[in-house]
Amino acid sequence: xxxxxxxxxxxxxxxxxxxxxxxxxxxxxxxxxxxxxxxxxxxxxxxxxxxxxxxxxxxxxxxxxxxxxxxxxxx
Length: 75
Known about the structure:
It contains five helices and no strands. The protein is an all-alpha fold. The protein has a single domain (9-64), classed as 434 Repressor (Amino-terminal Domain) (Orthogonal Bundle). The protein starts with 8 loop residues before the first helix and ends in an 11-residue tail after the last helix.
């Protein structure tokens, strides 16, 4: 079986900071399966969890969703 490719390296960094997918999921009130899906299926962190991930891990909202939180403040 081929190894899955991570589609969201920024979220993967947040997972590493939290300690695991399960730990990050608990921090933001979701299940580990949701984190896995965002990493390997959709590649997108849902907007409603960006701020809680930022608060829990220190990974900035601009990194997690630059489409919603551009560095220059212009969307």
